[in-house]
Amino acid sequence: MTNDPELFWFGVVLTLVTICFTLSLVGAGTKTLATPPTATSDVNSIANAEIVALQQQCQRLRAELQHQKTQLNVDFQDNTFAQLQPLLTHYPSARKMAESKPDLPARNFNALFTPLENLLQTWHVESIGSAWEQVSFNPQLHQPDVEDMTTGEPVYVRFVGYTQGDRILSPAKVSRTLPGGAERKV
């Protein structure tokens, strides 16, 4: 049994419609004086059979919907893992190498993030700014590191944010200065 509210209300409406239909058939049967008592019981048994059939169909549709929901979740996870698999496979080894060889240039790790960039493109997720880029502060797109920033003030993007269409998934984190206090020449 699922807890899907849409299916619950569908079942309630379906039951009410069936009851109204049954009552209208019973009401029509009692208004006609020429209807023998056996005809009314036949109408009731037909209506009851229809109710049972509709209830069975409702249960079947609920089970089918639950199965589809589960399958969609599995498909989503499979597709996401397939796109991230190169990153997930190489990251632990790269991390271990970085720990054992601290003088290793970071640019060697850039290729690891290509699958992540591809996934973001597939989902139509776009970044808000780029790291260390100087931009004008926009409180709708940026999260300041201090509370007294004003709109339009020049700031640096410390950590990029992300949007998807009109939705802001996470604002970019901005600061008046770059890490270490060094100003970047643009």
Describe the structure.
The structure is a single chain. The protein has 186 residues and is α+β, with helices and mostly antiparallel strands. It folds into 2 domains: 1-123; 125-186, Roll (Nucleotide Exchange Factor Grpe, Chain A, domain 2). Helices cover 54% and strands 15% of the residues. Strands 2-4-7-3 form a 4-stranded mixed sheet, with no helix packed on it. Helix 1 (5-31) packs antiparallel against helix 2. Residues 44-71 form a coiled coil. The chain crosses the membrane at residues 7-28.
Number of helices: 3
Helix-strand category? alpha+beta
Instruction: Compute the average pLDDT.
Output: 82
Rg, alpha carbons? 32 Å
Distance between the termini: 61 Å
What is the number of beta strands?
A: 7
Looking at this protein, list some descriptive labels.
186 residues; three-stranded antiparallel β-sheet; Nucleotide Exchange Factor Grpe, Chain A, domain 2; alpha+beta; 7 strands; single chain
